[in-house]
Design a protein that fits this description.
heterodimer; A: 251 residues; alpha/beta; Rossmann fold; 2 domains; five-stranded parallel beta sheet; B: 231 residues
């Protein structure tokens, strides 16, 4: 269903229900990889500037149906895909995504659209080089979200599904459905499952191991600071022209 | 009343029973005279006592401002454009067309998803990907495909609204003038429609002649639909 990534860049994504702690983890990866001298690009679900106003209009007027919601989120993803993911991967960048097509698969199916239909919708995208799935019991996730955030929003709580009149009860039922969809995808897409109930730094240790495995022996685009150093050394010492040789020396 | 049919799985979360209304689609390239014909048909239907609702691409209040805005910039690429149009289409189908059909209206649709697919494919979109998206689309009661030769289209455009950037496919053809570009682009569109004519069971109307001649053919083709409606 998803295409193979044949570009130089690496695609690493985090997935999990709300409150699974994935954003914290990906933020740590971002900082770590940048410091290591890699070119890293980060993209978040639902953040296309082109689609933003339409999503806002739909949410405000509560006019989304499961199909139009699914389509507009796919449009948002497609815009980021065409303007960012694709060129970045081609350039040799590590692309980090906080949520990916799998979020669409999980949420949209929970809302009632067909599994096959929504998988086709995103079939232009690549299967990531690494999918980190943060597995968390429903109760823990609901507790984290309801205690830390202000009132849950209409669509966030899945109020459009008429599961319950109460936002928190609706949120719990909705997240439960999403969790079920995620469980089904673990095998389907080869998710790496992480226990999201463990302390943040312990999870991060496992996460870095998995990322290192993907990046082993890989030479992508360095970041500007590192590339400036490489050029400086090449100028000073014209014999040593091999980029990798110099780059390894900077570590 | 024939049972409601979709091209794919429709809207699985929605129970849609038989729809008493009729969905009449008018398809065809730019400059072929769709809006003129729809206007005539609408007037005639209303005069004859039918309740008519009309719709057309990009008329959804949800997506219209967003699409306009996106088209004005230079960051809108084919996949995003395609999904934007699919959102517009789904929104109108669920919130406008299906409710109107439920209420027994004759719905006249100026273009349907066929035009969207044709334009997408010319911009490099995978034809089967595009078709699968519209698995939620209702199969119309009839698709009237207005077909005219490229020379007819050019005459009408010259004497009508004039050439424009999008209708000439300037975004993909990169030719140095609107005339050559329009000619090439619309020829490719006609090819796409020919592929779809069989696939989607279009009723082809020869639109090279007068407004009246085209209208006469349309009336003949829609008569069985109206007879069924009146049963």
């Amino acid at each position: 269903m998803l295409k193979e990534n044949n570009y130089t860049g690496k695609l690493i994504v985090v997935e999990g229900i709300d409150g699974s702690g994935k954003s914290t983890q990906i933020d740590l990866i971002y900082k770590w990889l940048t410091e290591k001298g890699r070119s890293v690009y980060f993209s978040e679900w639902n953040s296309s500037p082109l689609v933003k106003n339409t999503t806002k209009t739909g949410k405000k007027g509560k006019v989304f149906t499961p199909t139009t919601f699914s389509l507009i989120q796919a449009a948002d993803f497609a815009d980021r895909w065409e303007n960012q993911f694709l060129p970045m991967l081609k350039a040799g960048v590590i692309v980090l995504a906080d949520r990916y097509a799998f979020t669409g698969f999980a949420r949209d199916v929970a809302r009632g659209v067909g599994r096959k239909w929504v998988r086709n919708l995103y079939s232009f995208a690549f299967l990531p080089d690494l999918v980190l799935y943060f597995d968390v019991p429903l109760d823990d996730a609901v507790e984290r979200i309801t205690s830390s955030r202000s009132k849950l929003k209409y669509y966030e709580a899945g109020m459009d599904l008429n599961l319950s009149d109460k936002r928190i009860a609706s949120f719990r039922l909705f997240q439960g459905k999403i969790l079920k969809e995620y469980q089904k995808m673990i095998g389907e897409f080869g998710f790496e499952v992480l226990d999201a109930t463990r302390p943040v730094h312990k999870q991060q240790k496992d996460v870095r191991k998995l990322v290192n495995k993907v990046l082993k022996g890989w030479k992508g685009l360095p970041n500007p600071m590192v590339s400036a150093r490489i050029y400086a050394r090449c100028q000073a010492n014209p014999v040593s022209t091999s980029r990798t040789e110099v780059k390894n020396g900077t570590h | 009343m024939a049972p409601t049919k979709f091209y794919g799985s429709g809207f699985p979360y929605k129970k849609i029973k038989n729809l008493p209304g009729k969905l009449i689609v008018v398809e065809g390239t730019d400059g072929v005279g769709r809006s003129t014909q729809i206007e005539l048909l609408k007037k005639w239907l209303e005069k004859s006592g039918y309740a008519v609702s009309d719709t057309g691409l990009r008329r959804s209040p949800l997506t219209q401002p967003g699409i306009e805005e996106a088209k004005g910039g230079n960051t809108l690429f084919p996949l995003t454009n395609s999904l934007f149009y699919a959102t517009d289409f789904a929104d109108r189908l669920e919130n406008q067309i299906i409710p109107a059909l439920k209420a027994g209206f004759i719905v006249l649709s100026d273009r349907y998803f066929y035009s969207i697919i044709a334009r997408d494919v010319l911009r490099g979109i995978d034809p089967s990907w595009a078709r699968d998206i519209y698995g939620f689309a209702l199969v119309p009661d009839i698709v009237l495909y207005l077909k005219a030769d490229i020379d007819t289209l050019i005459t009408r455009i010259v004497h009508g609204r004039g050439f424009n950037y999008w209708e000439a496919g300037m975004d993909i053809l990169k030719l140095d003038n609107l005339y050559d570009s329009f000619r090439e682009y619309q020829t490719r569109m006609i090819d796409q429609f020919s592929i779809m004519a069989k696939e989607f069971n279009f009723h082809t109307i020869n639109a090279n002649f007068s407004i009246k001649a085209t209208n006469d053919q349309i009336m003949t083709h829609i008569q069985p639909i109206l007879d069924e409606y009146n049963k």
